[in-house]
Design a protein that fits this description.
Layout: H1 2-10, H2 15-18, H3 23-26, E1 47-49, E2 69-71, E3 80-83, E4 86-92, E5 97-100, E6 103-106, H4 111-125, H5 127-150, H6 154-190, H7 197-223, H8 225-244, H9 248-274, E7 278-283, E8 289-294, H10 297-333, H11 345-356, H12 358-385, H13 391-425, H14 429-442, H15 444-480, H16 489-532, H17 546-554
Antiparallel strand pairs: 1-2, 3-4, 5-6, 7-8
Length: 580
């Protein structure tokens, strides 16, 4: 789709692309409605200057503040510029102006301008520090965090500490609300007008609700305790997998570069396409004119095509990476000697995916792109035709947006597990999606717990990496750059933002790795269970860590009758061992 689209727009003759001129979007419009540097008679005057600034000592209230005309160069302080339509009209510039995207912007010495200039200068001075602490140090800290998770009992302490904290908050909230209701009830007996019965009953209701939630939370945790421990073990195994495949950050960087390269090329075509519109300007009589863009039907169709191509291609890049990660994880998980697995296994897996599974990635990303395109169409309909005063229309649109968003998230979830099945079994998208859905339905509790704990672990990791990187950057600036900077706060916040993005790019791999290992574990468990029943062939065991191996060996799912009713999309168990 992407290649054909670029060929069609770049090689096959297209009047709309050839008519495009980005300067028509960027250049200013003078008070006559002419685009500076584009339209005659101001084609040689490329800058727009608005001389009637309200702060100017020569401010003329008979003209609009936005009154402007085209000039050849931005004036300096004291220089004069002549109206190209009326040579007798001259304006003196009370200050220096600079050219910014075709507009002459005054350089006014005031506190706001000084703050902006000082802040920009600070960012220039610490650009290297931002790159080192926001990216390099963040990647190192991600590795440190993953090694920290591999330490025995560390992840267990983190997870169960959060479980206990949630229970403590619920119990404390219940006690606080009930105690307050008791005190207000006592005060009401002395002074009936002090507190109302509704207020006391509301406090009792909130306290009872929190107490009930505390009891439910304890019951849920007790019921899921084995699955929580399995999730902890699998996430520790996932951390070991990611740290063993040391080329993973390099592959992530390659993905980002592919995305940026496509984005630049796509943006170039889109700008020329958007600027091919018929530009009309209408002066309002007060010295102000605004641009209006009018598109033909063919141009609108081309814009829709470009948007859909963007959605499909970006989804394809993400899907390609997910299948590659899943394939590399499975190679590591089922390896007899994990030390023999190459550190660059992720690139070997990407070559396999490029050779055999591009169709699967394209089909799954197509489905997701269609759903996202429907959401954009609804957004267009809402902005174009919806009446903000009609509550019924607004309610219907919000319900539709909610349904589309839920459907999109479900498609993303199913796609991810279908890609894992594709990497494991080597089948197409639809068979892989059906097998993944059946596997999830048979083990819905395990999948939910692993997803929840995986997301919790990743969020904690992102916060830790962000705080450490921004904190170290602040300490470095405070110690070594105190006399060179005007402030530390904004650079520190920007470092934290870059570190958060870097940690998100790297640690999100932990989630798909944990999901991949979970599917490998469940498939292995089902085959061993059925092999004990004499229904299947015993496959070669994985070499998981002892905690995961013990769960697989001692799991109660080997008992007869446990899965007597678990026949939802039951996989064909008589397949060749080479499928794994």
């Amino acid at each position: 789709m992407t290649i054909i689209g670029f060929i069609a727009l770049g090689i096959i003759h297209s009047d709309k692309i050839n008519e495009g001129n980005p300067e028509r979007l960027l250049r200013g419009v003078d008070y006559k409605g002419k685009i500076c540097g584009v339209d005659n008679p101001v084609k040689d005057l490329e800058k727009k200057w608005e001389p009637n600034n309200i702060l100017s000592p020569d401010y003329d209230p008979s003209y609009s503040e936005e009154y402007g005309f085209c000039v050849s160069s931005c004036p300096k302080e004291g220089e004069t510029r002549v109206n190209p339509y009326d040579p007798s009209e001259e304006w003196d510039s009370p200050w220096d102006t600079v050219n910014i995207l075709g507009y002459c912007i005054p350089v006014i010495e005031n506190r706001q301008t000084n703050i902006a200039q000082d802040t920009f200068g600070d960012f220039i001075r610490v650009a290297g520090l931002i790159a080192v602490t926001g990216f390099v140090l963040a990647v190192v800290m991600c590795y440190v965090y993953l090694f920290f998770l591999r330490i025995p009992c560390m992840l267990t302490i983190i997870v169960w500490s959060n479980v206990i904290i949630i229970e403590a908050f619920l119990v404390a909230g219940a006690i606080l609300m009930l105690n307050k209701a008791y005190k207000e009830n006592e005060a009401q007996s002395d002074d009936p007008e002090a507190f109302s019965d509704m207020q006391i009953n509301l406090l009792r209701g909130i306290g009872g609700l929190l107490a009930g939630l505390a009891v439910v939370w304890v019951c849920v945790v007790c019921f899921l305790r084995e699955r929580i421990q399995l999730a902890i073990d699998l996430i520790q195994e996932a951390a070991a997998c990611v740290t063993s495949l040391t080329a993973v950050p390099l592959f992530c960087l390659c993905q980002v570069l592919c995305f940026c390269g496509f984005s630049v090329l796509w943006l170039l075509y889109t700008v020329y396409l958007v600027s091919s519109a018929e530009v009309t300007t209408e002066p309002d009589g007060a010295g102000v004119a605004e641009k209006e863009l009018e598109y033909s039907e063919r141009a609108k169709q081309a814009v829709v095509f470009m948007v859909f191509m963007w959605l499909w291609t970006t989804a394809f890049i993400e899907a390609f990476g997910q299948i590659s990660f899943a394939h590399a994880c499975l190679e590591w998980y089922f390896a007899e000697n994990r030390d023999s697995v190459s550190h660059f296994q992720i690139f070997k897996s990407s070559a396999v995916v490029a050779r055999y599974h591009c169709g699967t990635a394209a089909f799954g990303s197509l489905i997701l792109a269609v759903i996202q395109m429907i959401r954009y169409v609804l957004t267009y309909i809402k902005e174009k035709f919806s009446d903000p005063n009609n509550r019924f229309h607004q309610c219907v649109l919000k319900c539709m947006f909610c349904c589309i968003h839920c459907l999109e998230e479900c498609i993303k979830f199913i796609n991810k597990h279908a890609y894992i099945q594709c990497a494991m079994e080597g089948k197409g998208f639809l068979p892989s999606a059906v097998r993944a859905f059946g596997l999830i339905m048979r083990n819905i509790a395990r999948v939910s717990v692993v997803t929840l704990i995986g997301n919790l672990t990743v969020v904690i990791g992102k916060l830790c990496v962000t705080l450490v990187c921004s904190g170290l950057a602040y300490l470095y600036m405070d110690r070594y750059l105190e006399d060179q900077l005007n402030g530390f706060i904004l650079p520190t916040i920007f470092v934290g933002f870059i570190a958060w993005l870097t940690a998100s790019m790297f640690l999100d791999i932990l989630i798909i790795t944990a999901d991949t290992l979970l599917q490998g574990f469940l498939i292995e468990e089902e085959f061993e269970r059925n092999a004990k029943k004499g229904r299947g062939i015993t496959r070669e065991r994985s070499h998981a860590q002892k905690s995961v191996r013990s769960v697989l060996d001692k799991t109660q799912s080997f008992k007869e009758g446990k899965y007597a009713k678990a026949n939802i999309f039951d996989p064909d168990l008589q397949q060749d061992n080479s499928e794994l």
